[in-house]
Amino acid sequence: MTKVEYKHTEIAVKKQLGQNFLTDRNITRKIVRLSGAEPEEHILEIGPGFGALTKEIIEICPSFTVVEKDPKLAAFIRTEYPQLNVIEADFLKIDLEAVAGGRKLRILGNIPYSITSPILFRLLENRHCFMHATLMMQHEVAMRIVAVPSTKEYGILAVQLQAFFEVSYGFKVGRKVFKPQPGVDSAVITITPKEQVPLSDPEGFSHFVRCAFHQRRKTLLNNLKESYNLDAVPAEVLKLRAEALTIEEFFILFKEMKPKILS
Ligand SMILES: C[S@@+](CC[C@H](N)C(=O)[O-])C[C@H]1O[C@@H](n2cnc3c(N)ncnc32)[C@H](O)[C@@H]1O
């Protein structure tokens, strides 16, 4: 069992909570700078741990909210930073709308590897609650989020997120600056909800994207024909694979198709 001790607290590291703590102050400063955090903003940090990022955010914004699942770390943050609003809970279960309380959040977090996708999809569902998020995650996942068409990284994650967010790659963070050291490198990305998205049925779009990529090597025709009426879609488009389409082309295709009513 790996133990990490910081100031007055020692914890047995919980792998399932993705507890790899940042140890390099240059990196934490760089993340907070990239976030664009400003005083008076409504800030939410996901997973403060021992407060590596928290400490830097406080330099800019003296009071904000953190959500930490590990009771021992939540207690640590409460003692160390009494001015913060500490929510001891699972980020995936909190009511983000209630936390935002009508003021859009700026979100920061060095998020646990194991729940990166669930966190991203939760942010997607709650996109009206925040204006900007700066997230550190596994490098490979970051590359899949910012991927461009016709690359092997471009898939469901890129299309779902880029349809609703401006996404931007910040910088790479090597594994050596964490304790305990993970087996992979990390990267920081930012996501900003788009003001206008040309979709009347976001859930339908999400289902369509999953269908379009169902078997990557297959054409759009083969992946979509079971579930959609494709009569209005040009034949040359149906010969393509999903990975060839830009986000705008996904929007157009989605408008042209009609879901089949399956009996
Ligand atoms: C990668 S560590 C980052 C810790 C700290 N921010 C840092 O950079 O050193 C992830 C943190 O998220 C917490 N955590 C894990 N799962 C969580 C969840 N579902 N909700 C809230 N916090 C969670 C972990 O306990 C841990 O403190």
From TrEMBL:
An annotated Gene Ontology molecular function: RNA binding
EC category name: transferase
Binding residues for S-adenosyl-L-methionine: 20, 22, 47, 68, 90, 110
Alphabetized UniProt keyword annotations: Cytoplasm, Methyltransferase, RNA-binding, rRNA processing, S-adenosyl-L-methionine, Transferase
Similarity remark: Belongs to the class I-like SAM-binding methyltransferase superfamily. rRNA adenine N(6)-methyltransferase family. RsmA subfamily.
Catalysed reactions, semicolon-separated: adenosine(1518)/adenosine(1519) in 16S rRNA + 4 S-adenosyl-L-methionine = N(6)-dimethyladenosine(1518)/N(6)-dimethyladenosine(1519) in 16S rRNA + 4 S-adenosyl-L-homocysteine + 4 H(+)
Protein name from the UniProt record: Ribosomal RNA small subunit methyltransferase A
EC identifiers of the protein: 2.1.1.182
HAMAP family: 16SrRNA_methyltr_A
